[in-house]
Amino acid sequence: MTAAPTASTRAGAPGEAAAPTAEEARVREFLERVIADGAAAMAGLCTSIGDRLGLWTAMAGAGPLTPAELAARTGLDERYLREWLDAQVAGEYLDYDPDRGSYLLTDERAAVLADPDAPTYAAGMFTMLQALYGSENALLEAFRTGEGVGWGEHGPALFEGTAKFFRPGYAAALVPEWLGAVDGMEERLQRGGRVADIGCGYGHSTVFMAEAYPASRFHGYDFHGPSVEAARSLAERSGLADRVEFDVATAQDYPGEGYDLVTFFDCLHDMSDPGGALRQTEHALADGGVCLLVEPNMSADVRENVHPIGRGMSAASVAVCLPSALAQPGPEALGNHAGEDVMRRIADGAGLHHWTLAAESPVNRVYAVTR
């Protein structure tokens, strides 16, 4: 049987290539998308290098810089810097002036790549990728066996990158928007309350709340010892160690009771026993206390996740969230897009029957849950 003619051989006007068929056009369109995705993944390494070496910070607000000038600012090798700068021009992260041979990081781009205190800062995503690409072999084996890959089996860059990625959003919204949307909570914490931050990681969320409410006491709990140590160091540097404590504990056995507020920031879906965590919380809450659940803004209907944030979150669920739950003993393996109905069912079964959507952003949905 003779193969079907390709676009280059199909009959057409002499000397002209025939127009591609609709099928060929769709193949080419998808090929271009895959190549663009692969190029972005490769370029992410350069973005991470720039972050780790302080290049974005060195260029922020500096105006146009030549490779020699950037080398003088950073003490790094000029030849490597020129190659790195050229790669950033290709990705449209930097502007290039051919007359001067200089490169410019605009203020708008610096707000995303160079300023950890900006709500738009996103460089932490690339720190996470260092760890996740290093975990690929473990994930391959998990796909074959159905076993899990725990958070601790990833490299330390995952913990650091997660803290860097979520910190700007918490800084911008946690106190003024999320807690402010919970009826009576600000007044309760201003008078002096007790707060437990479950899955606190490096402690940024805990410290932001403690800075805003000096009359209250805060307890952060996390299963990961190195993260707890990082959180303790943050509390010391922030001058809050007298009323902010961090300890190693799981969500199902953290100590204490009489908490006015118990928080779970982007972590409940990673647990194999979220019901156990919420049962412990129901026991730990004071009368009138509130459990604040902050979860990814993802839908159980996968068609609603077809957008850049949904794509990134779904991929994170494959690499981190689902494997984490499967690595623990427990009845659930939710992933990060189980949906609100599933979360409400789990909360109701734990004795937390009243559920309110308090706030929402493109990245997160914030629920206030009570008995």
TL;DR of this structure?
The chain has 371 residues and is of the alpha/beta class.
Layout of helices and strands:
Elements: H1 22-52, H2 55-59, H3 67-74, H4 78-90, E1 95-97, E2 102-104, H5 107-113, H6 124-134, H7 136-145, H8 156-178, H9 185-191, E3 194-198, H10 204-212, E4 217-222, H11 225-237, E5 244-248, E6 259-265, H12 274-284, E7 285-296, H13 308-326, H14 340-349, E8 354-360, E9 364-370
Parallel strand pairs: 3-4, 3-6, 4-5, 6-7
Antiparallel strand pairs: 1-2, 7-9, 8-9
Helix pairs in contact: 1-6, 3-4, 6-8, 8-10
The number of helical runs is 14
What is the name of the CATH superfamily of the largest domain? Vaccinia Virus protein VP39
Give the rounded overall mean pLDDT.
94
Low-confidence stretches: 1-9
In CATH, the architecture of the largest domain is 3-Layer(aba) Sandwich
How far the N terminus sits from the C terminus, by CA atoms, comes to 72 Å
Name a few traits of the molecule:
alpha/beta, disordered N terminus, Arc Repressor Mutant, subunit A, 371 residues, two-stranded antiparallel sheet, Rossmann fold
